Prior knowledge:
By secondary structure, the protein is an alpha+beta fold.
Amino acid sequence: MKLFSKRTAALVTVAGIGLAAAASAWSAESLQDVMKRRGLSQQDLLAASKTYVPTGKRDDFVAFSSGGQSGQVIVYGIPSMRILKYIGVFTPEPWQGYGFDEESKEVLKGGRIDGKDITWGDTHHPALSETNGDYDGQFLFINDKANPRIAVIDLRDFETKQIVANPIFKSEHGGAFVTPNTEYVIEAVQYPAPFAKKFVPLERFNEEYRGGVTYWKFDRKAGKIDVKKSFTIELPPYSQDLSDAGKGPSDGWSFTNSFCSERYVGGIEKNRPPYEAGCSAKDTDYMHVINWKKAAELVAHGKATKVNGMDVISMNTAVKEGILFLIPEPKSPHGVDVTPDGKLITVAGKLDTHVSVYSFDKIMAAIKAGKFEGKDPYGIPVISMKDTLHTQVQLGLGPLHTQYDSKPCIAYTSMYVDSQVAKWNYCEGKVLDKINIHYNIGHLMTMEGDSAHPKGRYLVALNKLAIDRFNPVGPLHPQNHQLIDISGDKMQLLYDMPIPLGEPHYVVAINAKTLKPGIRYKVGTNSRTDKPSAGATHAGEEKTVKKPGKVEVFGTLIRSHITPETIEVTKGDEVTIHLTNLERAEDETHGFTVSTYNVHASVEPGKTVTVKFKADKEGVFPYYCTEFCSALHLEMEGYLLVKPKGYKEVKVAAAKADYTKADYDKQLKKIAGTQAVIDSVVGFITSHNYKDFPDVVSLVEDATDQLGRMKESKAKHEEAAKKGDWQQATLWAEQVFQYQVKAADIGLRAKTYLEEHGAKKVGK
Ligand code: K7E
Ligand code: CUA
C-alpha cells in the first residue's frame, strides 16, 4: 500500500512542480524563440525535424557499422543516428559477458591464429545476408583485416556465433561480401605473402608470394560457415582489394580489385624508392573477374589442392578451366560495386578522377569470343578496358566507393580528396549534384544500397577526419558519420554523428521491419550454439555437485534472487557456475560477478551461461547481479566462501534478530494493503481489452508468475506463526510482500501501457 501511495504521490509532485516551474519557460517559448536563443536557421530546423524520432517511436532503418580497431560492430538507427548496441565480435565485451563466459570464449577461440589469442580486430566490412540479392535480415558478417578472419553474427539475438581464421592468408581487406543467396562469403587477400607458414625472402616475391580470394561456404541452416566446403582461388601477388558479387544476370561471378599490380617491393633501407611510389607507378591495375560457381564445381570434382587444410584452385587450373580473367582498371582502385540490376560494375580509381563503368555483357562477349589483349605474367588472359567499358564519368579527386539509389540509374560516389559526395547517373554518364563532407570521406552507404533493391532516402558518409566538427576531446578525435537526405534532387546534409569507437570503415543499413530479433531464449539455451545448455537448470532443480577438486553449481536467476545464495568451496577447487535466467519478461536481464575473480556474465531471459574459474585464493567473495533489474537488485546477492584446505567446521551460533508478534502483524497489514492495490490494478487490466496487446499479455503472464511464487512463502509464514517463531514468520511474510511488489510493478507497467495505447473497456 505504502509503495503505491508514495509512488503516485511522487508522480503527482514531480509533475506538479515540473509544470509549475516549466510553465513560463515551456509554454511561453515559441519555436521562433528557441531558434533565436540557439541560433538555429530554418534549414537547421528542417534537418532536425527530418532526423528527430520522438520518444516511443522507432527508426526506419537499422545500420550495422564496423567498429574498426575495437573489433566490434556498432548498431545504430537511421535517421535518428541513436546508437543501439555494440556487438562484441573479435574482442571481449564486458557488458555482454562476451569473452568472459565459457560459451563466448568458445566463439573467440575460433579466432585464434597459430594457437594464439588475438585480442583486437581491424574490422572493416560488414555484410548482411541476402536472398535473391536482397537483404533478408538473418545474418551479419564482418571481416578483420589485420588478422584474416570472418565472423558470423546471428540477427535473431545480435550475438557473434562463429569466427573463422583464414589458414593461408596473412592479411585480407576485401571481405565480407556475400553472393546473392549467401552461398558464399567472399574474402580477398590484401598484402601478398606465401600461403605456406614459412619464411620466403622478398626477392622471391613474384615467384612465391601470392594473393587470393577465399569463398567461405555459408550453411544458412546451421547459421555457420562450413570451413570444409570453403575454397580459395590462388591469384597473382597483386594487392587484392575489395570485391563484389554479381547478381541477376551476373550471378555466379565475382569481381575483385587490386592495387600494386606493379608487384613493387619497397625497402628504403636498401635505397629503393618507397612502396607508395612503386605501387602507383602504372596507370592501371587489374580487376579480377572470377566465375565462382564454376570454381565450386571444380573443387567438387577434385581440381583443388589442400594448403594448410584449405582447398586451393591454382592459377594454372583457373586459367585452364576459364574461370579467371583480368581487366585493366584505373590506377589504385578502391571500390568495385555491381549495380542493383547486376548489369554494370562501377570501379573508382583513387588516383584517377573518373569512375569507370564496365558492362557485364561486354565482359562475357569478350570471353566468349576469346578476345584478349594479352596475358599477365602468370598467363591470366587480360580483356581490354575499351572492349568492356560502358562509360567513364569524370567526378573529381579521389573517388572511392559507390552506392545506389532506389531511383533508376542513380549512384553516389565518395571522393576522398575533394571531401565530397557526387550524385551521378550511370546510364547516361552525367554528374547531377555534389555535396561537401566534413572531412575526407571513405565509404558511403545508402539504405540497402548494395542490394538488388536499394531503398534510397538516406545516405551516410563515413568520414576519415572530423577535425573541427565536435567538442574537442584531445588529439584523438571521434569519427564523423554524416547523414544526408537523398530523397530530393539536391542532397541535404542532416546530421553529424560522432562515433567514439574507431575506425568505422563501412556500414550497411537494412529496413528495420526486415529484422525480427527475439526477446527471450527458450529456457536453458546456450545462445552461442543455439542448443540446450548442459548447465540448464529449471526452478526448483538448483544444485551444487562436489567432486574432488571440483565444484559445479547449477543455479538460477530470477528477480531478485540468485540460487544458491552460498557457494562453499575449498581453495584450489575448480569452480563452474551455470546460471539460467528464469525470467520470461522482456528486458529482465541479470548480470553475475564474483568479486575479484574476473568473472562476469550477462544472462538474458531464458539464457544459460557458464562461468569457470579456479578458486586459487581463500577468503570471502560476494557475488551479485550486475544489472539493475528490480527494486531489490542490490539484494540480489550471495557469498562464495573459499575455505583453506583442511578447514575444520566450527559450530557458530547464527546471529538471531529479535522479532515479535507485533512485527508479524505489521507485515500482515502491509500485505493486505498491497493486495488491495494489486486487485485494483488487475481489475483495471481485466476490464480492458488487454489481450489485444501482446506486450501486455506477456507482462500479465510475468506478474501472475510472481504471484504464484507467493504461495510457498505464505504457507511458511503461517506455519511459523502457528509455532510462535516470529523471526521466521516475519521474514517469510516479508518474502510474500516482495513477490507482491514485483507483481505490482509489472501490473502498473501494464496499466500505463494500456492507458498510453488507448485500450478500450470491455463489455460489462
Ligand atoms: Cu572499405 Cu579503405 Cu577498408 Cu574504402 S576501405 S575507405
Ligand atoms: Cu538481477 Cu539485478
